[in-house]
Q: What sequence folds into this?
């Protein structure tokens, strides 16, 4: 018998090494390398193809093709993120923390499609059929014609799906529970996850079904094992949220058939996930309008404008090294805004404890939030509540200028739609200026700072005289 070659795969990041070592060179984790026999594993596919010797067809790029056929669920928030429905013959990965609502979301979309007469198969590797049924009944979906299977062996799943008419949608919940006879490793290891995902993506291409794989994210935010799965599938969506809040965000991070920066917003209720068509209203729902330190940021998520409350608390610090606590924003970005306030606007703020919170548990990563953050900070520092009907957006430069940002028109329209009366921002284009809102444009951050401070209960502390 030929000696089968082996290599070692890190179970944390998927890196391959030719010899065993205690610590993975790629990700630095200890004791994560597991031996994998190559001939029986992933390498077998291409080798077999080579043995056939069949050449591939070369075709011109300019050929005619139909646009991708899609199965539209009718759940607008989900269809928006997939780019208009699940693409037939494609594989999609839905990742997220355990307990965030992935199974609920997919069961609801499965029922929606089954109710439209599509053939939908839901394979649960985590829950027994009775558990899935119970959940469906609780969600009021007990009558939907979804076909269920509780199975974890890939070969059996493939045989089941090939038996009978081809399904339109197959949901595999979850990829970490699958195992295949083709490799020796234990279920849940990178090798098993990768080989199983490969078999299922092949099934998608072959059968024309849309295959949805559910993947749990580990503590470091990667889908366990599945960096490897991410590049294999056609689209990757993340389901995010904060377990202490009801809303959940479905975010596209890769999509071969559509834009990636779209989000869908849902709220987890006792009747399952409900779509939130107007997220700005949800995020501003509990706003304390008269409190100092609160500013409304007119943000963008993909092509979608979103109004979000930013709260700041600036408090005198008893500590030598003051505290900085940021939730929902980048803390180095906060340091930058603080440094600009201090050096360019003459505001002595750095010696205080500073807490910054994006309300509702949302995460913002747009630099356009700078101006809203600065406004909230100055408002808290001086005790001046900002006008309740104002929204803020603009990027702050290191020189203390306020830079214009993209999609100003969309942000302004959203503010108007939600009943806001004024906007504070950098320079706007002429087209954006006449919008019925009261517009205040600042070229310099210091101008906004002195305007807010003029309304304040406390004067802005002057910087200490320079001693160097
Ligand atoms: P689930 O879909 O099982 O999460 P995942 O598949 O991502 O692990 O959702 C689990 C959580 O959702 C659970 O903590 C309870 C909550 N939930 C509701 O609040 N309402 C509901 O109707 C359902 C079905 C679940
Ligand atoms: Mg689940």
A:
């Amino acid at each position: 018998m030929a000696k089968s070659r082996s290599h070692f795969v890190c179970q944390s990041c998927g890196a391959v090494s030719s010899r065993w070592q205690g610590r993975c060179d790629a990700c630095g984790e200890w004791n994560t390398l597991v031996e994998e026999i190559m001939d029986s594993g992933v390498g077998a596919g291409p080798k077999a193809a080579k043995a056939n010797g069949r050449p591939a067809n070369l075709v011109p790029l300019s050929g005619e093709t139909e646009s991708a056929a899609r199965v539209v669920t009718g759940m607008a928030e989900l269809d928006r993120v997939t780019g208009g429905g699940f693409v037939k013959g494609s594989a999609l990965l839905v990742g997220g923390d355990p307990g965030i609502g992935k199974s609920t979301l997919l069961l609801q979309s499965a029922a929606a499609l089954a109710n439209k007469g599509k053939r939908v198969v839901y394979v649960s590797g985590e829950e027994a059929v009775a558990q899935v049924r119970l959940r469906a009944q609780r969600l009021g979906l007990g009558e939907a014609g979804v076909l269920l299977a509780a199975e974890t062996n890939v070969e059996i799943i493939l045989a089941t799906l090939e038996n009978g008419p081809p399904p339109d949608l197959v949901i595999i919940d979850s990829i970490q529970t699958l195992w295949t006879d083709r490799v020796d490793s234990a279920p849940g290891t990178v090798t098993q996850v990768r080989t199983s995902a490969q078999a299922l993506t092949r099934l998608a291409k072959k059968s024309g079904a849309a295959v949805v794989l559910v993947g749990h994210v580990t503590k470091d935010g990667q889908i366990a094992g599945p960096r490897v799965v991410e590049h294999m599938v056609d689209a990757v969506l993340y389901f995010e949220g904060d377990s202490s809040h009801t809303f959940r965000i479905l975010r596209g991070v890769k999509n071969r058939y559509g834009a990636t920066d779209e989000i869908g917003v849902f709220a987890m209720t006792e009747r399952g996930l409900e779509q939130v068509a107007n997220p700005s209203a949800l995020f501003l729902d509990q706003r304390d309008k008269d409190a100092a330190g609160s500013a409304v940021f007119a943000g963008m998520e993909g092509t979608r404008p979103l109004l979000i409350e930013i709260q700041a608390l600036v408090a005198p610090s008893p500590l030598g090294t003051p505290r900085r606590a940021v939730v929902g924003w980048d803390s180095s970005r906060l340091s930058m805004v603080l440094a600009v306030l201090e050096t360019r606007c003459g505001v002595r703020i750095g010696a205080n404890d500073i807490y910054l919170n994006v309300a509702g548990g949302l995460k913002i990563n747009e630099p356009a939030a700078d101006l809203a953050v600065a406004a909230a900070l100055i408002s808290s520092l001086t005790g001046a509540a900002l006008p309740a009907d104002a929204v803020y957006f603009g990027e702050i430069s290191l020189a203390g200028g306020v830079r214009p940002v993209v999609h100003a028109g969309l942000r302004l329209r959203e503010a108007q739609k939600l009943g806001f009366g004024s906007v504070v921002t950098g320079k706007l284009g002429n087209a954006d200026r006449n919008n019925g809102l009261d517009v205040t444009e600042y070229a310099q951050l210091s101008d906004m700072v002195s305007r807010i401070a003029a309304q304040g209960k406390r004067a802005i502390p002057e910087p200490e005289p320079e001693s160097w």
Remarks:
- The domain at 70-277 is CATH 3.40.50.300 (Rossmann fold).
- The pocket of thymidine-5'-diphosphate (ligand 1) is lined by residues 96, 98-104, 135, 138-139, 268, 270-272 (CB under 6 Å).
- DSSP finds 13 helices and 23 strands in the chain.
- The longest strand covers residues 304-316.
